[in-house]
Amino acid sequence: MAKRKAAAGTPAIAALTAAGVSFATHAYAHDPAHPSYGEEAAEAMGVSRDQVFKTLVAEVDGALTVAVVPVSGSLDLKALASAVGGKRAAMADPALAERTTGYVRGGISPLGQRKPLRTVLDASASALTTLCVSAGRRGLEVELSPADLAALTHATLAPIARP
User: Is residue 108 within 8 Å of residue 9, measured between CB atoms?
Assistant: First the structure.
């Protein structure tokens, strides 16, 4: 995986470039009719659904929190709350998530957010050499090491996904 410079990038790509980490971008034609952004990305890139991670915004005890989980699973809200020392978690209002992160639904990246949010990365990521997350718009993914993603987002690693 070679380091790429951001040509016409997104805030996520700009953050990766500024950090000097190695990453690759993967663009594909987004189909608005596809029922799942993450599944669409995995299919378009021809990679396992376990390697593509979706970025979800939840509220834990009233505070917005980012959960990054494999497309192959779903978010365990109780586990997310526990991972950040909270009691109750619920999915955030999509409009609030978009306003806070600066990204549109289906293109929310854990990187380069308008207002950086507390982030929890599913522990399954640590078994991977690289993973893919949204690069900040629908139809664009970024591939990087889980360690770099965790470091750049100050993420907590915890088992927050369920199959």
Answer: no
What is the widest separation between alpha-carbon atoms in the chain?
A: 43
Secondary structure element (H or E) that encloses residue 79, with its range: helix 77-83
Answer yes or no: are the C-beta atoms of 111 and 92 closer than 8 Å.
no
Tokens for 134?
């949204």
Total Cβ atoms within 10 A of residue 62: 8
Separation CA 19–CA 52 (nearest Å): 22
By CB atoms closer than 10 A (0-12, 13-18, 19+), residue 45 is: middle
Scan for tokens 């990453």, then name that residue: 23
Q: Is the pTM higher than 0.90?
A: yes
Provide the H-helix boundaries in 107-154: 146-153
- For the chain, the first-to-last Cα distance in angstroms comes to 28
Would residue 114 be called left, alpha or beta, if left means φ above 0 and alpha means ψ between -120 and 50 degrees? alpha
Q: What is the pLDDT of residues 16-70, one digit of tens each?
A: 999 999 999 999 999 888 888 889 999 999 999 999 999 999 999 999 999 999 9
Tell me the pLDDT tens digit for each residue of 102-160.
Answer: 999 999 999 999 999 999 999 999 999 999 999 999 999 999 999 999 999 999 999 99
